[in-house]
Amino acid sequence: MKMNMMKSNQAVSSLWQIQIAASFRGLMMATIGLSILGVQSAQAATIGSSSVPWVSENAKSADSFVNSIGINTHLHYSNTVYARFNDLIKPKLLNLGVRHIRDGAYTYAGVKSSSFYYERLRDLASKGIRFNLVTSVPTRSLPQTDYRLLSQLYTWTNGSITSFEGVNEPDLNLRGKSNWFDITRNSQIKLYNTVRSDPKLKNVSVIAPSITTVKTKLPSLAAWSDYGNLHNYFGGRHPETTGWGGNGYGSIAWNKQYVAGAITGSKPIISTETGWYNALQGPNTPYGTPEDVVAKYMPRMFLSQFNSGIRRTYLYELIEQKTDPTYSQTFGLLRSDGSEKPAYKALKNLITVLKDPGAQFTPGKLTYAVQGDTTNLQRALFQKQNGDFYLALWLGEQSWDPTTKTRLSVASEPITLTFTDQVGAITGYQFNSNGSLSTFAINPVNNQLSLKVSDRLVILKASPAKLLSLNTLSMPVSSVRAAAIALDPLAENDLGFDRNLQAIPIPTLLPSAIGLLIQALRQRKIQRLQKQENEF
């Protein structure tokens, strides 16, 4: 009896010792198992920390952003530099990488498939470019669009028309006509009904007319429009401006609400014209902006418009039409001689970094924190089909004062990025004022990296092999078993895991995973002790 009691006391004591040892070994095994996967245990302390401003953000498809970029052309202007279609316009357009252009729906008398304009459109369509064609009412410079020919235009462009657009700036082009409201409304109704009644045009959208002022509002055209329309020029200011007049006048939000929204309500919006001109001296040039400043603003503008929900933005325009540095129409990405402005290079680099043609997919989510002065910090998150994340960062601040025509110094802001996921080397793309791109690498330490963000866009790329989501991360059973056997050879036969199980999911909170491992080892030790007791 006494011997049995002694054995029982020894058993209880051994159980406590084994439980403590098992807990220690469980922690060891958890650490080893995670280390095998390259996950550091220190990472667990940061997850869910209330002191860190975590953001769990759904990425957008990188290619959907590239597909939102368009540009205005005047391919029908045979008496300007656009006459150099083959040796200048087409090569520069294709080199730029833009997939959408805005031009005219020309239906003048005698027009046909072999007209040079539609030959040019077919040529570009064969290279993957698609078109938004603007219709018109009779003005001093344009004839009335013959809506009966819209189906023909679609055929002449080999089905590459994505949209027809209503009257261009009728409040300006029909100035002096007291019935311009009625003219614009009637033409939009006819355009919409023509497109919607033609089976061939079933996939073609109809964009509302563009107006330039909200002083005199059009009646609602929402019933005859698939998209609202904006011509939101920034008046020499930066694209993130909160406005320079009452009620946020001039900002993206103001234009969406009071210009497009006034005509088409809650319909999605396309900006068919926007941009900056570069003439700093000369008549009618109050908002001229230097080329290097526009190079900073250009990629930020497309990102800001995309972030705001604008479906597509057509920049005005591809090339200057006159050789005159004081001319107010110096909007072109190219100078009239075909030379590239810094903004051309910046936009080309933006498209090159983010383009990802191919099948549509559902982008994933990235959880990260940004610490530092984030007052004017802007960002956009994208993902490509191969899983790479692209995080765009920039300061939405003014680099040029259009009133005094002076440059403004924008101080860089140091920030710290922290990821909840394991991060390896990150590739950075820094956009420069001359439009060029600098590439660099950052090696995060403990899932953190520090960098300075300025008014020049920077994009950080993280590859999936180096950025694993803890929500989907799992530990192979083989790794767990190997780690346990290294601690205790007897663990090989009685770890207690399902033999058909290939991997053990790791919960977001690592302590839970560690607890499960401790429990497994503890149960194994208890079972072994009980077996020894029975044998004794």
Distance between the termini: 15 Å
DSSP strand content: 15-25%
Q: Residue-averaged pLDDT, rounded?
A: 84
- Radius of gyration based on Cα positions: 32 Å
The best one-word shape is globular
Question: Helicity level, as a percent range?
Answer: 25-40%
How many β strands by DSSP?
Answer: 24
The parts where pLDDT drops under 50 for at least 5 residues are 1-48, 468-474, 491-513
Largest sheet features: 8 strands, parallel
Strand order, main sheet: write it out. 7-6-5-4-3-10-9-8
SS-derived structural category: alpha/beta
Task: Quickly list its features.
536 residues; alpha/beta; 6-stranded mixed beta sheet; 12 helices; globular; disordered N terminus
Written overview of the protein:
By secondary structure, the chain is of the alpha/beta class. 32% of the residues lie in helices and 20% in strands. It has 12 helices and 24 strands. α1 crosses α11, α1 packs antiparallel against α12 and α9 packs parallel to α10 (342-354).
Question: Could you give a quick summary of the protein structure above?
Answer:
By secondary structure, the chain is of the alpha/beta class. The chain has twelve helices and 24 strands.
Write the layout of secondary structure elements.
Layout: H1 2-36, E1 54-58, E2 60-61, H2 62-66, E3 69-72, H3 85-96, E4 100-104, H4 116-125, E5 130-134, H5 150-156, E6 161-165, H6 170-173, H7 180-196, E7 205-207, E8 228-231, H8 252-264, E9 269-273, H9 291-307, E10 312-315, H10 342-354, E11 365-372, E12 377-383, E13 389-395, E14 400-401, E15 406-407, E16 413-419, E17 422-423, E18 426-431, E19 437-442, E20 448-453, E21 458-462, E22 467-468, E23 474-476, H11 477-487, E24 503-505, H12 510-535
Parallel strand pairs: 2-12, 3-4, 3-10, 4-5, 5-6, 6-7, 8-9, 9-10
Antiparallel strand pairs: 1-11, 11-16, 12-13, 13-21, 14-15, 16-20, 17-22, 18-19, 18-21, 23-24
Helix pairs in contact: 1-11, 1-12, 9-10
